[in-house]
Design brief:
CATH architecture of the largest domain in chain A: 3-Layer(aba) Sandwich
Number of domains of chain A: 2
Shape of chain B: globular
CATH class of the largest domain in chain A: Alpha Beta
Distance between the termini of chain A: 55 Å
Number of helices of chain A: 15
Oligomer: heterodimer
Number of helices of chain B: 2
Largest interface: A-B, 42 and 28 residues
CATH class of chain B: Mainly Beta
Structural class of chain B: mainly beta
Order of helices and strands of chain A: HHEHEHHHEHHHEHEHEHEHHEEEEEEEEH
Strand order of the largest sheet of chain B: 3-4-5-7-6
Strand order of the largest sheet of chain A: 5-6-4-3-7-1-8-14-2-15
CATH superfamily of chain B: Nucleic acid-binding proteins
Helix content of chain A: 25-40%
Radius of gyration of chain A: 24 Å
Radius of gyration of chain B: 15 Å
CATH topology of chain B: OB fold (Dihydrolipoamide Acetyltransferase, E2P)
Number of strands of chain B: 7
Largest sheet of chain B: 5 strands, mixed, barrel
Strand content of chain A: 15-25%
Structural class of chain A: alpha/beta
CATH topology of the largest domain in chain A: Alkaline Phosphatase, subunit A
CATH superfamily of the largest domain in chain A: Alkaline Phosphatase, subunit A
Number of domains of chain B: 1
Number of strands of chain A: 15
Chain lengths: ~500, ~140
């Protein structure tokens, strides 16, 4: 034993192929792991200044959710699934983020986005302000605003933008460019006359004054007045009569409202506002059926980079997949999986359109959800399917495993939410559990499945990406972006 | 309340069958009606879905949704109705079933925009003279 260990240590130090006499060395598992080892030993620690920074956030995509999406995408490609890698899982650097808000063990997206983007933790429900302000107290908030990485990038002369499949006024994108004592201050109708008179400004209005070059996502209703009907037949929410899409165009920006418009965007355009839905954009699973036609997250990301790349000083871009979270809240894993795959495709396009040496890309989630992968499913079992296990010899069986109530169960379940069983559990034997509208069974009845408090992963590549390492506070992400690109200098 | 609970316990239990259709099968993208929907217009259908929380008490109608009408307290200050909902006019006053319980609705399918005289509810597609059962 001692001799074997000594031999292994010697070969590792030498950095060459080792363990020539190990019986497992011919195994593909062994060879693959050896290759990864070599790759990691050769991964450079880039120390140059990042010209560009892209922060990708898949809202609610915790570690278990991400594992399920990995398998889902792999199985869609004909693989068993478990061995598959999502685009960002190939990134060389990884850490775990502690996501709690300054006043809550289980966080919300406003507090977590502020942490990532402004470098300090704050309260649930507030955007871009310190944690000494009560939620809703917009007057006190006026003196407690904290600039984000996007604001600092603007100050440094970089181009900036936000992309989201949620409303662009929703918590995560809002934290990049706005200051609000309540995440629900999405348009002026959410503010009282007294608050307006005191100087409080709604989030959509701040989107225009933040001087961003790119705003792409949903949320058209917060940009147009209540008396105006939009291109898809929905009315606006603003009560001040302002049409911010018109104001944007008056400032020289391009405005598009559907996929066609984005695809035909003038290649010379240097400012674009794209609002593709009255509220949130469609789930990826439903996108094809949208009346006006919506771009994918990857298409929006590519369009954003094309515009932002024109700035010689570089750019800062936030890209959010906002609806992984919404599908989880609905207890509907299928749509969460589809949006997760779309997210991975958006990261892939960004890696293809940028250089490793000058662009820091960080990929993370803001918080997790209660999705669990339970039971003892056999390798390659459909991730949304009924759990089928192994026989006593370890070989796959064809019949679903049965719980103590004699009924089958799915691998994916939620701890709480609308799928909670009340009374007798539904027999899933004849139910298409892989259907896009299937709601996974859950334990605790709640109208909406909830966030959870465990850590989320952070993946990184590019200059100073190796500082993403260990278990860190979520607000540390800002500090890596700032250090890499010198945003606050 | 006790009577309602007892009633729910003894509601007929329906299992999914091949002739049960889904709400989304009524549409062919772009919110246009599918060929299937057109072929079933005026005919008796079985559709699966969930009963949205009732808009008023003692009603004889409800809204069928493809998934439970979950509302995330952090995400939304109000619930947005999805586009693909189904107006269901029952034979009698509706006994409310929790919005998370899967249902099978049986009734006559009606296509085309119509304003319900009693409620003012505008619908593009309806099931009328309907029965509904829990799907287990």
């Amino acid at each position: 034993m001692k001799k074997l260990l000594a031999s292994m240590v010697a070969t590792v130090v030498a950095g060459t192929t080792f363990a020539n006499d190990l019986p497992q060395q011919s195994s593909p598992w062994f060879q693959d792991a050896q290759n990864v080892l070599m790759q990691k030993m050769e991964t450079p620690r880039l120390r140059g200044q990042a010209k560009n920074v892209i922060l990708f956030v898949a809202d609610g995509n915790g570690v278990s959710s991400n594992t399920a999406i990995r398998i889902f995408e792999g199985q869609a490609q004909g693989l068993l699934g478990e061995e598959h890698e999502l685009s960002f899982e190939k990134f060389p650097h990884l850490a775990l983020a502690k996501t709690y808000n300054s006043n809550a063990q289980t966080p919300d997206s406003a507090g977590t986005a502020t942490a990532m983007l402004a470098g300090v933790k704050t309260r649930q429900g507030v955007v871009g302000i310190t944690d000494n302000v009560d939620r809703g107290d917009c007057v006190t908030a006026l003196d407690n605003q904290i600039p984000s990485a996007l604001h600092l990038a603007e100050r440094k002369g970089k181009a900036t933008g936000v992309v989201s499949t949620a409303r662009v006024t929703h918590a995560t994108p809002a934290a990049a460019y706005a200051f609000a004592a309540d995440r629900n201050f999405e348009d002026d109708s959410a503010l009282s006359d007294e608050q307006k008179a005191a100087g409080c400004v709604d989030i959509a209005s701040q989107a225009l004054t933040a001087d961003m070059e790119v705003i792409l996502g949903g949320g058209r209703r917060h940009f147009i007045p209540a008396e105006l009907t939009d291109e898809e037949g929905k009315t606006g929410r603003r009560t001040d009569g302002r049409d911010l899409t018109k104001e944007w165009q008056a400032q020289g920006g391009e405005y598009v409202w559907n996929r066609d418009g984005l695809m035909k965007l003038d290649p010379n355009a240097d400012r674009v506002l794209g609002l593709f839905e009255s509220s949130h954009m469609e789930y990826e699973a439903d996108r094809e059926g949208d009346a006006g036609g919506e771009p994918s997250l990857a298409e929006m990301t590519a369009a954003a980079i094309n515009v932002l790349n024109k700035d010689e000083d570089g750019f800062f871009l936030l890209v959010e997949s906002g609806r992984v979270d919404h599908a989880h809240h609905a207890g509907n894993a299928y749509r969460a999986m589809m949006d997760g795959v779309a997210f991975a495709e958006a990261v892939q396009i960004a890696t293809q359109m940028t250089n490793l040496e000058d662009t820091l890309i960080i990929v993370t989630a803001d918080h997790s959800h209660t999705l669990v992968m339970q039971g003892y499913a056999q390798r390659g079992n459909p991730i949304l399917g009924l759990s089928k296990g192994l026989d006593s010899q370890g070989n796959p069986v064809t019949e679903p495993s049965l719980a103590k109530d004699g009924k089958p169960y799915t691998t994916i379940a939620y701890v709480n939410g609308p799928g909670a069983v009340q009374g007798e559990r539904q027999d899933l034997s004849n139910v298409d559990v892989e259907d896009m509208d299937f709601v996974q069974q859950a334990l605790i009845p709640m109208s909406s499945e909830t966030h959870t408090a465990e850590d989320v992963a952070i993946y990184a590549r590019g200059p100073w990406a190796w500082l993403i390492d260990g278990t860190v506070e979520q607000n540390y992400i800002f500090h890596v972006m700032d250090h890499a690109a010198g945003l606050s200098q | 309340m006790k009577y309602l609970f007892v009633f729910l316990l003894f509601l007929p239990i329906y299992t999914y069958s091949s002739d049960t259709i889904k709400i989304r099968e009524l549409y062919a993208g772009d919110m246009q009606f599918s060929e299937l929907a057109k072929s079933l217009d005026g005919k008796r259908v079985k559709i699966s879905g969930y009963m949205a929380p009732p808009l008023k008490a003692q009603a004889d109608f409800f809204v069928l949704t493809k998934m439970p009408m979950a509302v995330c307290p952090f995400c939304e200050s109000e619930a947005d109705w999805p586009d693909d909902i189904l107006f269901v006019r029952g034979k009698d006053t509706i006994d409310v079933i929790r919005y998370t319980e899967p249902l099978i609705v049986t009734g006559i399918l009606e296509l085309g925009t119509k304003v319900d005289e009693e409620t003012g509810f505008v619908s593009r597609v309806r099931v009328v003279n309907a029965d509904y059962e829990r799907a287990l």
